[in-house]
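Help!! Second protein's tokens look totally different from the first
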Amino acid sequence: MINLKSLQSKLNYQFEDTSILETALTHKSFSNENQNIQSNERLEFLGDAVLELVVTKYLFEKFPDRQEGYLTSLRSALVRGKNIAKVLESLDVLEYIKLSFGEQRSNGSKKSYIQANVYEAIVGSIYMDGGYEVASKFIFETVIPTLEGILEEQAHIDSKSHLQEIAQERFNLTPTYHLQKESGPDHSKQFEMGVFFFDKLIAKGNGSSKQKAEIEAAYNALQEIQKDS
């Protein structure tokens, strides 16, 4: 049984309707094993849109002299799956995620794409329960503070362009991206893309669109290249 009081304290938000919070924590694997229990996919779909809007507005106002390309790269870094997965981990709520027995055995709560999806679903649940302002406040308390680290690490630099430059310079090749897996209903698709050097898989990435998954894959490939250099 989920201790909702403890969980809401960690989220710094008290729900009027706690059932929506429980839904936000319900991975589709758990829903598949338990009939009549709704998964968090619809809330994830909503939360993704709210997160992008809040972050976009914040960056638009914070950097009045910056052009669209720069703002887009910062937004991509802030809402990137790995970034919001780290945010969810920092909230210490992984134990509350409802997973199937199979996902539990494979440490599903440690998978970054599941963590990212749950974070977005929580945003969606807060938005549905309390409205835009409280959802925005939650994002400002959790995701926006990661901007400083992103700027310090230059994690906002276009990962795909950066990877292409390195690949051409070091290996005289152009990275290619191929779909590895596609899952979820039409309204909440999840894509896994692989980035390849010739026929060799370098890294994978997940996202709610192929473009997002490619960016994640490129970012992960850069991390792998840095380890080997």
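Here's the second one for comparison:
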Amino acid sequence: NDYLAITRKRVGVSITKMCYDKYISARNTLYEIIPGNTEVKQITPAMMQNVLATIQSKYRESTTSGIMTKIKTIIKFGMDNGKIQINPFQGLKYSTRTPSIEYLTEDEIRRITDRHFDIERLERVRDLAVFQIASGLAYIDTQTLNPEDIHYDNGTCYIYKGRHKTGVE
């Protein structure tokens, strides 16, 4: 909770609200497995093995990795501030590899573009999905796209916009 109080101050400065919410979710997941009244100095490697096994039984590898990485950050904060003497992550192994990306086939894209809906809202959702497929933009980048981000050069349309997640154009 001390770490989260400090992290909350960083929202809008160096992290997003969504990132902060993921730390809250990771803490809550930890509390579901280890009782919330357990003092941090009582957390042992065996308890963390149980946390990992429980999370792995509920989530896929990439989600497990994300949750465990956030819990580890919180635990390391406790260690750095003298609240935890023994590293509960000692000997704990979990995958941190990035999952491979599965690309849509031409047929799958055609089925999306050719699909018609009776509900206008679903038509807009389809159009947004097709635009994201064609442009390669992430949802958040599409959501924050402005007319100023769109430029034309010799009849070709270009999008010049920094990625929301990384800031890279």
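Reply: Different proteins will give different token patterns, so don't panic. The CA atoms of residues 45 and 87 lie 7 Å apart.
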